[in-house]
Amino acid sequence: MPVVRFIIVAFPKSHVKINTNIVRYGVPLTIIFPICFTFYLIPALGVCKQRAAPYPFGAIWIYYIDSAFGLRNSFFHLYNLVFWMTVSVIANLLLFYQVRRARSKLIRAQTSGASKKSHTSITITTLAMIAFYVTNGSFLLMYIFYYGTTSYFSYAEIMRPFGNDLQTCVVTWVFYLTHPAFQQRITSILVLLVAATSCVDSYKILMYSNLFGHSHVKMLAAAADVLTDAGHNVTVLMPVMDPMLRNKTSLKSTKNTIFVEAGENVEELMEEMREFLTNLWTADNANPLVMLAKAGDMARVFSEQCKRVMSEPGLIEKLKAENYDLAITEPFDTCAYALFEAMNVRAHVAILSASRFDHVTEVIGQPIAASYVPGTQSTMGDRMTMGERLGNYIQYFFGSYFFTNLGDADFEAAKTIVPIKRSWREVLPEASFILTNQIPLLEFPAPTFDKIVPIGGLSVKTEKKHLKLDEKWSKILGIRKHNVFISFGSNAKSMDMPDEFKKSLLEVFKAMPDTTFIWKYENEKDKIVDHLDNVYLGEWLPQNELLADPRLSVFITHGGLGSVTELAMMGKPAVMIPLFADQGRNGQMLKRHGGATVLHKNDLANPKLVRATLEEVIKNPKYRQNAERLAEMLTNQPTSPKETLVKYVEFAARFGKLPSLDNYGRHQSYIEYFFLDIIAIATVISLTSLYISYRIFRVVLRKIFCSKCSEKKSKKE
């Protein structure tokens, strides 16, 4: 137990995983430890004899024969007990401090029930440990002050063996029976002994995380750490598509990693992708044709890296030998599904870093609902005109084609290395669950089914609300009443912004001298704002701390989903300026809640519009009120994304594939899905009925008119 307690204090984030292995093998030893200790002590050090009354509970006194330690066991233990009691009291104080900090974080972060149970178990175990030191400490004091002067000392001595038994046996069992890492339900002594030697309820999980795009890497890293903290053995396989992310994996608790380095061809193609990111400010990324033009380049990058992964010497054999219970990946890169096929994984789960991907929506059979649900790369809201509905459907179609092209390229590349018969369109829908980065309270309402599970906000830590700014930025926020934070993320750099946009922003800064502007600008040496005393540049800025500070008035951002989620949970008004991908959709998603407004990136060239928009958001209290209300709802939402992730992943690892959740609609043709066959039959029947009715009506009319004509004719004759 001292080792376990030391690990808890020294490694507060990963203690569950480490101690799980220690206790797995250590607990059974506690059964035989007292026996071995007693048999070792008697022949080696002396003899035991039963003391006379008043020792009816079997207390013993060891006499040493020719021992350098003295005649009595108690003399030897006197100094030993003082030393270890001092050390242990210090360790317990540190442990209580760690538990108190952990509990305060749990209250703020609303972490999973499993984590709360873990820290409750630690507290109970610590109290049991202290009971041991109280009993032995009481004897120590009695020994010092009352030895030989009162018969009550004899009763105090009885506590010593009970205290020792508490230390060697009971405390370990308390930890074993209360910690959530051990899920067995003990119903009898027999089951208890069997459980002591069995494995804990922990799963081996393989996560495939392609190092491409910070937001994608961050989302999967957060999921890996949550599962690791829950006691599972998680290994993250990371193909290094972007070498700049090689040392920026965002992993904290998870230590088991496998890197597959990028090949020369991949690095060359990635340089072309960086040029594309540099041109984000001027490219018409909302145009589907621009998307199609980049589809070929993206497909080449992903397929080359997929070849590298599948041909990595010994990788597939090594992963097969691990016999993982579950595999996890993001279907942004479908190469993982080729690897899963080659490994013949038992089951897999998909995690989306976005709220939805159009190609995933299509292959799993989720209703598109393009008339009121914006596509992944759409710039519309949910209330669309006829033209916008058409544009939204076109965006969905091209978005699906874009990622479908990537998926096909991945599998074609993989098939040149390993024999794979099926397509990613067949493998992906077999996922036990599709875990999406969406928060229902924030997201556009859309048709869904039980396989799709929202875990939005997983990578957002709500305790950031309690973070404090460093002295430098805190002083800057205190200079003026209004403060504006400007950041366009890690992909689109402000220093690459067209000069026209920069000049426009400088005009806005100059026209608002009563407002402080904090601008994420990647070249602090640039003298672009030297003539302005209300503008502060930074290559890296403490975004979380700035958003958490109540003095921040407005956040101007590109609308990445991570930033939007953090912004929404912090309750700050915003001006959204989307640049590419799902940012337009994210901006409209936040706008519908009333705490943000959206500008087109080309509006940056219009300083009057930018200034008017900023002043409206700053001065109109409805933006802050709506933003704070949304933040309050998100903070108190009924479910926790971390707890949801752990429960659904554990369920998938336990039961494997879940065909009962498969949406049969994905197998239907357009004719079946949209009732075109029934409509056609109904149309034919209706037209036939109309035709028959017409013929009958015509015959009847002819009969009527013909009979009248014949009557008139007969009268004339």
UniProtKB/TrEMBL annotation:
GO function terms (MF aspect): glucuronosyltransferase activity
Membrane topology: Single-pass membrane protein
Catalytic activity: glucuronate acceptor + UDP-alpha-D-glucuronate = acceptor beta-D-glucuronoside + UDP + H(+)
SUPFAM superfamilies attached to this UniProt entry: UDP-Glycosyltransferase/glycogen phosphorylase
Enzyme class: transferase
EC number, UniProt record: 2.4.1.17
UniProt keyword terms in alphabetical order: Glycosyltransferase, Membrane, Signal, Transferase, Transmembrane, Transmembrane helix
PANTHER family (UniProt xref): EG:EG0003.4 PROTEIN-RELATED (PTHR48043), UDP-GLUCURONOSYLTRANSFERASE (PTHR48043:SF23)
Protein name: glucuronosyltransferase
Originating species: Caenorhabditis briggsae
